[in-house]
Design goal:
about 280 residues; alpha+beta; 5-stranded mixed beta sheet; two-stranded antiparallel sheet; 9 strands; about 30% helix; globular
């Protein structure tokens, strides 16, 4: 019996081995991509659910206050003192030991934050103020602590809100009954970790293509929004300038003009409820 010949017939050739390795590598890539897509989808689903819960609390607050919408103020002192009331308190940045970044009382404890945290009695949970795709942290007492908020509120909506441009052509909404088309006006959105600071998200429809604050794009080049009518959606961005690389721990340069960026136009239209930004 020729054992050498039988052993040779049972073994892989070099070409066959390459084919097997290639197939395995392809399967690993496909499975890895599928896992990444599922993770993105899961984050997006949770984010939309968070924004819907916040929107429900926002509406309940208005219903309890003669249809007047909650305070929405900009600035480092927003929500921290009488005369500076805002729906949330605190100023976010990456400065070490700035506990505004991690203070959930500024989000939900209106009893402890009487000039902020106005939606706390309605929503209860601090976790819904942050998208799971936001991995930003800040140094507190030498350790890295997750920041607690990624959500901001449209600057055109608020009991004490204001427009970016003095004398804007576009109205502010201080009462639910002023809103003409609730399906096209966004209330909450997730803001980029390197853009977010106070609880107000700026747009400037008076200046074409002007991007003041930047929306999040961590949902596979898309961001999440909730609208006055109660629906929430993931909106995909198309211009790479809307989605500059995220540098953890570094602030983005804000208030820039991006000529031709259709994403800016979309934001302006859905923030100010006008058919055209200019």
């Amino acid at each position: 019996m020729n054992f050498t010949k039988r052993q040779s017939a049972a073994a892989f050739t070099f070409i066959e081995l390459l084919v097997v390795v290639s197939v395995i590598c392809l399967l690993v890539c496909v499975l890895g991509a599928g896992t990444a897509v599922n993770r993105t989808s899961s984050n997006g689903f949770q984010c939309l659910n968070n924004l819907r819960q916040l929107l429900a609390g926002w509406k309940m607050y208005a219903d309890d206050n003669a249809r007047r919408v909650v305070y929405n103020l900009d600035g480092t002192g927003a929500g921290k003192s009488q005369g500076s009331e805002s729906w949330v308190a605190g100023w976010f940045d990456f400065t070490a030991n700035n506990t505004d970044n991690t203070n959930i009382n500024y989000l939900i404890r209106h009893d402890l934050t009487p000039n902020g945290a106005y939606l706390g009695p309605y929503v209860k949970s601090a976790s819904i103020f942050k998208c799971p795709a936001d991995k930003s942290t800040v140094s507190i007492a030498g350790g890295r602590i997750p920041r607690v908020r990624s959500v901001s509120l449209n600057n055109f909506i608020g009991a004490n809100s204001r427009s970016w441009t003095t004398g804007s052509r576009y109205p502010l909404y201080r009462n639910l009954d002023q809103i003409r088309s609730p399906a096209t006006l966004f209330v909450f959105l997730d803001e980029r970790a390197d853009s977010i600071n106070d609880g107000l998200f700026w747009t400037d429809p008076d200046t074409q293509y002007q991007m003041i604050d930047f929306p999040m794009s961590q949902h596979d080049s898309a961001g999440a929004f909730s609208f006055v009518d109660g629906h929430a959606e993931i909106h995909r961005w198309s211009d790479p300038r809307t989605m500059p690389p995220l540098q953890q721990g570094q602030l983005l340069f804000l208030n820039v003009n991006l000529p031709g960026d259709v994403d800016v136009t979309w934001l302006q239209q859905h923030a100010s409820q006008v058919p055209s930004a200019n």
